[in-house]
Amino acid sequence: MGAEDDGSWNLDSKQSGFEKISVGVNGRAIDFIKLGWLFLNEGKNGERQVVPVDWVEQATRIDATTDPASD
């Protein structure tokens, strides 16, 4: 996607694998814009398909089954 810097991903615990709600994904503002653009364009950066369209659809659909609070 043309990120300008490395990002990071934080989990609440290795056991649950659930992302931290407040700071799960870390990165530079410009890279978040590029990530948003990637989602807006169904996984494409210009003419290049960076991630599959179905992955974008799955990543943006509501899925309440992975919330550990529902256990």
Write a compact overview of the structure shown.
The protein is α+β, with helices and mostly antiparallel strands and 71 residues long.
Descriptive account of the structure:
It is a single chain. This protein has helices at residues 29-40, 53-60, and strands spanning 8-9, 25-26, 44-45, 48-49. It has 71 residues and is α+β, with helices and mostly antiparallel strands. It has one domain (8-63). The chain has a two-stranded antiparallel ribbon with strand order 1-2. A hairpin with a 2-residue loop joins strand 3 (44-45) and strand 4 (48-49). The model has no long low-confidence stretch (mean pLDDT 82).
For this entry, give a set of tags.
single chain, 71 residues, alpha+beta, two-stranded antiparallel sheet, 2 helices, 4 strands, globular
Q: What value does the average pLDDT take? A: 82
Q: How many E-type strands?
A: 4
Q: Helix- and strand-based class? A: alpha+beta
Q: Give the topology string: H per helix, E per strand.
A: EEHEEH
Question: What share of the residues does DSSP label as strand, in percent?
Answer: 5-15%
The main pleated sheet reads as:
2 strands, antiparallel
Number of helices: 2
Tell me the number of structural domains: 1
Q: How large, in whole angstroms, is the Cα Rg?
A: 14 Å
Estimate the global geometry from the Cα principal axes: globular
Helical content (DSSP H or I, runs of 4+)? 25-40%
Topology of helices and strands:
Blueprint: E1 8-9, E2 25-26, H1 29-40, E3 44-45, E4 48-49, H2 53-60
Antiparallel strand pairs: 1-2, 3-4
